[in-house]
Design goal:
single chain, mainly alpha, 64% helix, binds zinc ion
Length: 154
Amino acid sequence: MNPLAFFVIFAVVLAGMEAFAWATHRYVMHGWGWGWHASHHAPREGMFERNDLYAVVFAVPAIALFWIGVNRWSPALPMGLGVTAYGLIYLIFHDGLVHRRFPFLKSPKSGYLKRLVQAHRIHHAVHAKDGCVSFGFLYAPPVRVLKAKLRQGA
Ligand SMILES: [Zn+2]
Ligand SMILES: [Zn+2]
C-alpha cells in the first residue's frame, strides 16, 4: 500500500475516533450503557472498575480490523492502527493522567494538556447519568464554556 494513503487513512480514523468516542460516551455510556459506566462516575474500589469492560469491547473491532488488513483488505490495517492509537492515547491521558491510575504522570500546569484535564474533570463534576457536559476528550473546549453549559443544566 502507498505510504501516504496508509498515513492519511490512519490520521482520518484517529481523528474520527474522537467523534465516535464523543457519541458513544454521550449516547451509550450515559444512555443504555450506564450500568457499566456508572462505576467510572463513582470512587474506584481496587484496581479496576466495571467501566473498564468498554476497553475490552472496543478492542474487538480493532483486532478484527488488523486481521482483515493482514489477510483480506489492506486499508483495514491503518484503520485498525488508528483505532488502537486512539485507545492508547485514551488509556495514557484519560486513565493515566486525568484519573491518576499511572501515578508517575505529573499534572500539567499549563497549555493544552491542562485544559484537557480540566475539561474532563468537569465531566466528572456530575456523578449521575444525566446533566453531564464535556463528553469528548481530545477536543477540549475552554473551562469557562463548559462551566456555563453546566450551569444551564447541560
Ligand atoms: Zn461519563
Ligand atoms: Zn473519566
